[in-house]
Amino acid sequence: MSDIITQIEKIELPNKSLKNVEDDLLRHIPIQGQKFRWWMIFLFIILLIGIYAYYRQLRYGLIVTAMRDYTSWGIYISNFVFYVALSLVGSLVSSILRLSKAKWATPLNRISEIVAVAAIICASIIIIVDMGRPDRFMYLFLYARIQSPIVWDVIIIATYLVISFLLLYIPLLPDIALCRDRLKNIPRWQQKFYKIISLNWQHKPEQFKSIKKLSGILMIMVIPVAFAIHTITSWLFATTWRPGWDSTNLGPYFVSGAFMLGCAGIIVAMYFIQKYLQLEEYITDKHFDNMGKLLVLLSLVYLYFNINEYLGPSFKMVGVEGEHITELFTGSYAPMYWFVQIIGLILPIVILIFRPMRTPFPMLIISLLVIIGAWLKRFLIVIPSLQHPYLPIQDVDESYMHYIPTWEEWAINSANVAGVLLIITILIKLFPVIPVWEIADEKGLKKI
Amino acid sequence: MNQKKKKNSRRKFFRYFVTGGLGALTGKGFSEVLNQTENTDEKKIAALLPDGKLVKISQSEADHAHHQPVSKKESRKGIPGKRFVLIVDLARCRNARKCIEGCEKHHHLTPDRPFIKVLKMQDNPRSSPYWMPKKCFQCDNPPCVKVCPVGATYKRTDNIVLIDNERCIGCRFCMAACPYSARVFNWGEPRDPENYDQPYSPETSVPSRIGTVEKCDFCPDLLREKKLPPCITDCPNGVLYFGDANDDTVTNGTETVRLSNLLREKAAYRYMEELGTEPNVYYLPPVDRLFPFKDENEESDT
């Protein structure tokens, strides 16, 4: 990371007064745009279809999915792993980059925390959707057995959710107070809402001192927790004997993949924020350039762990492990596998090396490909392994041999994606997406 | 329907009643805590509840209690002094599938989620294929028990690994963890679950519940009555031997042999010993076979 992180250079802000900055960053909040309304309606429709599909699942059982006795985990689990991975972005940007004094990343702090919180909430939801008996959810606490990796995951997800939420909320306090004080042409409920959640913030120096201290502690705390959350998620697989899962490489492989995905996620978010909130002066081409370099670096790290993950087994080709590898490399999963590895991993490295490609639009396309690749990668991690047990699959219905998700599964998963986008959209709509006081502080516009 | 509900609630009461640390009830044990008192239209007797209270119940209800399965708490302990094992003589199996049928009947299973599978195996291209009956291996180091987040599946002192389907949350981690694919899941509503004339016990595995995991349980309810599981007795070729390692005897229903002799002399092995799961199911190699290998399916295909 050396190149990017040591690049302490500040991104020059336009020559503006404090009031100008505040105006710019609060501008989008009172506006009732047509586009915003249609976007929300669109998300709600997807959400409703998903809720109907889940109602069917609750009524008839998991039989409405394509999962069966061999492929006993499906795209719910893929989505879960995907979201846990995405949530790591919060620690990457708002903690690792900030602690490395990469000041250029300050405008990205809040959006990365928003994405992290949204992703971790929806990861928790999809894992409950996957349960055969969601009515017994509380048993996880009543009868928890600490040696089960699922219980570790429950503990660490809860911890990460709390820390991520605080890391979003605490630095947000001065900006909520700003909304409370400055925004007058908004509905009354919204004024009241700001008043309540601003916790009587008065912009006092000692208040700033304490939130700086608090977020400093949280920033350090979140790093081990972020590594743990995805490592433990990898242990859900690595603690079994399944081919493709039975690997000591799985922890760092998952974590590095998560950072790469998170980076791509932020680039997509940056693109839309810059475009729709007219914040080109705050999220500049320089940001895209830096994030592009970061994506190349993180992709290279992930590439290394990919080679490490597949070379050994494909060299030895032992038993079911070999069959699993053959299925991925040349079998029915080959098109997906090579799409993921070439389009979703190698191509971004090759393309983003060139500076003209590190501009908003090409980076949006590349990042979307990385995200699609990352989702498919989670599919490839979860499903083919289950289809290669030690004992042959015989004596079962033809449907047990394959896994093609049903409409209910797609609908629920789409609703889950819509849920993440909805949380992100609402939070962006309610609060300044770029931390006002941190920008003001950095620019020296305001003495804190 | 209403009546049935009433009956069920009475049964529930009885389950509670029998749970009172009485363990496996014998007629004798039961009579010790019952005192006959009065005669009304139906004979009433007094019963001692676990908390020390005396209540009056009818004789017919008390009789019914004899056949109640053991309590949840008791079902976690195992039958004292026993260590059950199963031996599969691969030389005798000709895929008659009677074990599967017997198991299906006993556990009210549908054919899509059998506890037993008979797999066509071939160790290498030049050796002859053979049939391998496979059920839960009741491991001493069970991967499924290790990963269960709520203790719905557990290991007992008598070697049996059981599932409590009223505890299971349906996460299916045990299915991912089991290297032998021994577990099945109730993806939909099981076949008329209300029709079984007995309350649920982990020892009987019936009635099945939607959204929970199931597997072969060595039929501990029958073992308590000193009966063999149906897969053993229904096998026409004496493939499966069942017994107690503490007694060092196993039987296939017709002959009873020394476990240690059988394992030693027939070069018994456990499937995938290298995984370290310590199964309690042993296989005798398919040598000197009783039947030539014949795959009915393949024959009908050609």
How is this structure best summarized?
The complex is a heterodimer of chains A (about 450) and B (about 300). Helix content of chain A is about 70%, strand content about 0%. By secondary structure, chain A is mostly helical.
Task: Write up this protein.
The complex is a heterodimer of chains A (448) and B (302). With 448 residues, chain A is mainly α. Chain A is 70% helix and 0% strand. Chain A has helices spanning 2-5, 18-26, 34-60, 75-87, 89-99, 109-129, 139-142, 149-169, 173-182, 188-197, 205-238, 250-276, 285-316, 319-329, 334-352, 360-386, 407-430, 436-443. In chain A, helix 5 crosses helix 11 (205-238) and helix 13 (285-316) crosses helix 14. By secondary structure, chain B is of the alpha+beta class. Chain B is built from eleven helices and 14 strands. Chain B has helices at 2-18, 27-32, 59-65, 72-75, 98-107, 143-147, 173-177, 220-224, 230-234, 259-265, 296-301, and strands spanning 34-39, 43-48, 54-58, 84-89, 117-121, 130-134, 153-155, 161-163, 184-185, 213-214, 240-244, 249-251, 256-258, 281-284. Chain B has a five-stranded mixed beta sheet. In chain B, a hairpin with a 3-residue loop joins strand 1 (34-39) and strand 2. Chain B is globular and about 70 Å long. The chains are: A mainly alpha (448), B alpha+beta (302). Chains A and B meet through helix 7 and helix 8 of A and strand 5, helix 6, helix 7 and strand 9 of B.
